[in-house]
Write a structure and sequence with these properties.
heterodimer; A: alpha/beta; Rossmann fold; six-stranded mixed β-sheet; four-stranded antiparallel β-sheet; 12 helices; B: mainly alpha; 2 domains; two-stranded antiparallel ribbon; about 5% strand
């Protein structure tokens, strides 16, 4: 598979120039990352670890201080192709309220297409498609502020998929939602990845969500610490705990059971696997 | 409580009024306002009132909402009415006299006249935002003002600012409600005390509201950039504005009422 997002010894710093002399905070310290087309990658890390900053580097919102970020072979420093990059890589943010521009659902979904200068008929078609994809078509004429959090976030996602991007970066899209809203959004994300072959980069605090990805990348103080399949990553319970991160509940259960001397595999990350392992254990 | 405010809200629908071209609607609303101020007699104002009611019925917006949009300005109506009653003392018939207070027929007439005029004004112009989606509205304003682009007025930016302002009214109202509850939970007292004390009690509400608005603005700017926003150049629209025969009828409809008002002014 082709590489789609690529970071090469990427450095990034925030400069606070209100202070005198300006204070420089180095957020990303040499990130090397290669994300393939169609992959579903979860990025973990505690607050301030640099994961959001990294995501914004792939969207040309942040430009690297040194090193390079590539999107589908285009360097993000290439100013002429800025709109191409933004169209290829959509970004969904944490707070659904703060990323919806228009008052009516369909008008918000159309926003990106209007900016891109797509013809009105084509906008209509793509807006309807996007809304059907996220299951919000019946709400197309509703006022945005009357929707639930999960529905608003799905509208925000529809606004991104209307651009037909190859990749969607989601920055903690479920952090402000209730469990039902979280499930709706996760279902939508997984469906986009499986059925439309959209590359997904999901930044999250929920280990259960990360366990559903193809690959998990753990970032701490601007560096990639662990990068691998969810099973490999979550079996390193102690390392993750030292980084201030959790593991899925079932993985933790198995970890504690092993510590207590029960023989149970270490790479369990879903409830089904855990149930089966426990069943097998009890049958013996 | 605050969430009762309906100014600037849009109620989707499929009535004739909804389907009018927003540009035509804006111009006709302006004509309607001029009409109300042209009306010099109760008969003329009656025509204005009739127009407001008929248009409300045509829009199929529940009349209940008309009451709702008038509620916030009720104090203003009452205030103007009282001022008129008390200060206009030039009438022939005196209903009531006590010390400096003198209520005459002319005062009462002017008070009622002004109250009805304000009610028509607010109800009629609320109908514009009730039946037009904010995007259509700002789009129309952008188009109507587009000749000003020649003298370097940032028309698109102004229209965008208005879209966003209208979009965030309900969000910020909700947030204000939350902050008020939070401050009340911490023992803030907003309902008692002198006017100055109550005004001071607003500070702990406004400060967090401002801070969060700036944060929202930053988030929104980022989200807009991510969605390829780069100003007004080369933008297209989901909903193209186009005028139809319906708009011509609407113009005629308003003109008939306007003619009625002028005619009544001349007769009486």
């Amino acid at each position: 598979m082709d590489s789609f997002l690529k970071a090469e010894s990427l450095h990034f710093s925030y400069i606070n120039d209100i202070e005198d002399p300006p204070v420089k905070t180095e957020v990303l310290k040499g990130i090397d990352l290669d994300i393939k087309k169609g992959e579903f990658v979860a990025v973990l890390g505690h607050n301030g670890s640099g994961k959001s900053t990294l995501a914004k580097c792939f969207n040309a919102i942040n430009l690297p201080e040194s090193g390079d970020a590539f999107v589908d072979g285009i360097n993000t420093k290439d100013d002429d192709r800025l709109l191409d990059i933004r169209q290829k890589v959509g970004m969904v943010f944490q707070n659904p309220d703060n990323q919806i521009v228009a008052t009516i659902v369909e008008e918000d979904v159309a926003f990106a297409l209007e900016n891109m200068g797509v013809a009105p008929d084509e906008i209509r078609r793509r807006v309807d498609d996007a809304l059907k994809t996220v299951g919000m078509y019946e709400y197309r004429e509703h006022a945005v502020h009357k929707l639930s959090g999960g529905q608003k976030q799905r509208v925000a996602i529809a606004g991104i998929i209307a651009m037909s991007p190859d990749c969607i970066l989601l920055d903690e899209p479920t952090a402000m939602l209730d469990p039902a809203g979280r499930r709706e959004v996760m279902k939508t994300i997984k469906m986009l990845n499986r059925e439309k072959n959209v590359t997904i980069v999901l930044i999250t605090h929920y280990m259960e969500e990360a366990a559903q990805a193809d690959r998990v990348v753990v970032i701490d103080s601007g560096e990639i610490i662990i990068d691998g399949k969810p099973k490999q990553v979550f079996s390193q319970v102690q390392t993750l705990r030292n980084l201030g991160l959790d593991v899925p509940q079932v993985t933790e259960l198995c970890f504690e059971l092993r510590k207590a001397g029960v023989e149970i595999p270490q790479d369990i990350i879903t409830e089904e696997e855990c149930a089966e392992a426990l069943y097998a254990l009890l049958k013996e | 409580m605050i969430s009762d405010i309906t100014i600037g809200q849009y109620f989707p629908g499929r009535s004739v009024v909804h389907k009018l071209d927003p540009r035509v609607k804006i111009i006709l609303t302006a004509v309607f306002i001029v009409m109300l101020f042209t009306a010099g007699t109760f008969y003329g104002l009656g025509v204005g009132l009739l127009f407001t009611f008929v248009t409300f019925l045509l829009s199929r917006i529940p009349l209940k909402l008309m009451g709702k949009c008038l509620k916030p300005i009720l104090p203003i109506i009452i205030f103007t009415a009282i001022i008129n009653v008390v200060f206009i003392t030039s009438g022939d018939k005196v209903y009531f006299e006590w010390k400096f207070l003198k209520i005459t027929d002319e005062g009462v007439h002017t008070a009622i006249f002004m109250a009805v005029r304000i009610i028509c004004l607010i109800a009629g112009s609320s109908l514009l935002t009730y039946t037009t989606s904010p995007i259509a509205l700002t789009d129309a304003i952008e188009r109507l003002l587009s000749p000003l682009k020649k003298i370097k007025v940032p028309v698109h930016e102004l229209a965008m600012m208005m879209t966003i302002a209208l979009r965030f009214i309900p969000t910020l109202i909700e947030e204000t409600d939350k902050i008020i509850s939070a401050q009340k939970a911490r023992g803030a007292d907003m309902e008692t005390g002198s006017l100055i004390k109550r005004a001071k009690a607003l500070v702990p509400i406004l400060v967090p509201l401002f801070v969060s608005s700036f944060r929202r603005a930053e988030d929104l700017a980022l989200a807009m950039e991510c969605r390829c926003y780069h100003g007004g150049d080369g933008r297209t629209r989901l909903k193209q504005l186009h005028m139809s025969i319906r708009d011509l009828f609407a113009a005629v409809y308003v003109c008939v009422f306007f003619a009625g008002v002028i005619a009544l002014n001349i007769i009486f």
